[in-house]
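Write out the 3D structure for:
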Amino acid sequence: MKIKKSAGKKYIASEVFYHGMMLPGMIFVVLFNIIPMFGIIMAFQDYKPAKGYFRSDFVGLKHYKYLFQIPDGIEIFQNTLVLAVGKIVFGTLMAIIFSILLNEIRVKWLKKSVQTIVYLPHFLSWVVLASAIKSLFNLDGFVNAFLGTSINFLGNSSLFQPLLIGSDIWKEFGYNSVVYLAALTAIDPGLHEAAKIDGANWWKRVFHVTLPGMRSVIILMAAMGLGNILNAGFDQVYNLYTAPVYETGDIIDTYVYRVGLNGMQYSFGTAIGLMKSAIAFVLMMTANGLAKKFTDSKIF
């Protein structure tokens, strides 16, 4: 027994350093993620800052009923889904195509140069990129000057969503391709050699060797993306949208910020945010189940 106890003490002593490294992160999670969760009580109250949590009137599901009675309620969920699905689907396709093409480059310096160039936009803030996009797509911007047109890309509701999806894909596809490049390195080169001997051209090798070899990673990444389907990119939309495009550009996060904080409807904004979190939780659990079913691995 004494030997076991001393061994246990040594093990605990050896792990203290690692637990100490985790401590700042855990404190951060508690302060900014767990403690603020008590604020969800506002979703069921007519919250008044002067009264606080405990003295504000309890109204039950009033804010949720109001959400689905106003035209904006369905509209913001629809916009969020369209933008999020568009970014996930087309962004994934672009990342897969780029990784396959990049993997074909045999000149190392050229391959690394291309990788560096397409990775860079990911590390730039939307505050910076929004200014560049506005300069390009304004009425007097480079795109209209080049095309000889006067299209209001940033003020046209029908063009704003494609602009958001396209600019997000441009920013992120290079960085997202890292996972797929790693998956390509795991494919046995002998399979490609065998396919060549059998007379398969490049296209056939892609569809019958490369993509099947990447299938598990693609399914896993798609399943992980499912949990973020209601995150359509607050920072991007907020820095690019204006009142004329609220109809198609307003998403859940920007609506909560605009109505809940700027409009001081704290309970209503909290109710919308809580509904989004509940839906995201269900989608994440679904994604975890799909990942386990199709790839034999769990997200968490």
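DSSP finds 14 helices and two strands in the chain.
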